[in-house]
Each structure stands twice: as C-alpha cells, then as structure tokens.
Amino acid sequence: MDVPVYTMSGASAGTMSVDEIALGETINADLIKQAFVMYHANKRQGSARSKTRSMGALTGKKLYKQKGTGNARHGDKKAPIFRGGGHAQAKRRTREDYRKSMPVKMRRKANRNALLAKLVDQEVKVIDKLSFDAPRTKDFMKFLGAIGIDKSALLALNTTTEGGKNVSLSARNVDGLEMCKADQLNVYEMLNNRYLIIDKADLEAWLSGPSSQTGKIVKNEEVA
Known about the structure:
Blueprint: E1 2-6, E2 12-17, H1 29-41, H2 104-120, E3 124-127, H3 137-146, E4 153-157, H4 162-171, E5 177-181, H5 187-191, E6 195-199, H6 200-208
C-alpha cells in the first residue's frame, strides 16, 4: 500500500510504502472492538464516591416542628428521601476495579489493524518532516488547514527533539486535537479521532519498533 506523504505546507512529498500483510491484511472488527473496550475500561479510576447525610452541605435545621402540622415527622433536609439529601447506603471505601486485559500479541495486532483501517479510509496524514522552529499556535492552525484537517485529529509526536517540542507547545490549546507519544500509538486514541497526523520517520519507527511486534520477539521485549 502506497500512503501519500505531505509537506508542512500541504504539498505532495511522494509516497510511503506500508506492508498491508504486516498490519493484518484485512480489517478484524471484532479484535479492534475488544482492544478499544479494554483501553476505554482501563481509563476508569473506579474512585466514585457518594455522601451520607452527615456529609451534606445543607442546613441541619429541623424543617418544621415535630407535632401539630399534620405532616410527617422529619428532621433536616439531609434525609435520604429528600432530593439532594444523603445516600442511605453511601458508596465508600471499596475501590471499583474496571480493568480488562488482553494478551500482548492480540493488543499489538489490534493496534496495527486499527492503523490499517485508518489507512484504508484515507484518514492518516503522514508528514515528511513535522517540526516548528518556534512554538506558535497560529502557524499550527495554518498547517492543519493546509493538510485538510476539518474534523477531530490525533497528533502522534516525538517530543524528544526541539522541533517536536515546539509542535507540542503549538498544538496543546487547539480545540478538537489530541496528542500522544508516537511510540505509544494505540487503537483507542486512533479510533477516537477522525484523522491521525504523524511524522514519516515516527511512523516508520512505530511499524518496526517493539510496541508493534507480534511474533516470538514479544516475549523478550518490554510489554506495551
């Protein structure tokens, strides 16, 4: 598969050859969904809490006198039967665990297959050299317009270089744009945005790096 490569000004800079077989050859929707659900679930903290009536911010004053009104006997508005009152069985202490897991090979295959899906839909913008001399949001917005970004986008960056740091600083306040490290690209972030923007060298490094290996070498590499 030949993927078009663009310059920072939006002009064509040739093509990049990507092996479809290495990305799974065909799109496996079930595998992609399983990985997406796992990444989504693992973002949950499981720290939801609710308050008892003793923790409420309402007044503790008695609503009305105990007898003689014809109404039911009540204390303050913090009682669980009132709207905004405390919870009778408040959720406390126990931390919920929503984490899911997948074998390393399956997870990496899902990440590669998700990239294939984006490539097939022509939603990957590969840039010949993605860098700025100085951080400036106005220049970054001009860059997005030049490469035809009109929906949400994921910017995969290598921030170890000076140019990459400037791109990160230029893009951090752009609405509808998410950023991630280029070597940590995964199915959840790719599918959660319409476009993927990545430097050609960073994409080549990800395709050949340890985080995308699905063979026997997986056992000897760091789990990604």
